[in-house]
Specification:
Protein name: STAS domain-containing protein
Shape: globular
Structural class: alpha/beta
Organism: Mycobacterium paragordonae
Number of helices: 5
Helix content: 25-40%
InterPro entries: STAS_dom (IPR002645), STAS_dom_sf (IPR036513)
Radius of gyration: 16 Å
Order of helices and strands: HEEEHEEHEHEH
Number of strands: 7
Mean pLDDT: 86
Length: about 140
Amino acid sequence: MHAVDSQDQRRPRYRYVVNCDGAQMFVYARSLATVVRIDGGVDAANAGQIAAEVRRFTKARTPLIIDLSHLDFLGIEGFQQLLALNHQHQAAGLYCRIVTGVALRPLVRVVRDHGLPLVRSVPEALQLIEDALATRRQAPGMVR
């Protein structure tokens, strides 16, 4: 019998993995949201495909967390797609948070009024969702 590494127990189990021409998407459900983690690089060759895949998960109308913390490169095309996704989520009233990372930071420093709902980690995004739900439950007379 061998001991199980506690880190292994905390790793999410991905229910969906897709290769997108230089990037990989790992999708898993948490209790409060769907998390889409994107690894590798996003450029003109794959930005449209990645955005289309992310849009598939917004159809469920559940909170969405886009995790870019493992992304190595984000080109302007990928950034434009991210801005468009954010605009669509806001217009539809869908909750979305974006976990920032080294690939996104230079772009948000240059484009200061980007409006992206950035967080530092998936746990932070989940906490914000939990807090919003608790506030909604406590508000008297809220209509669903």
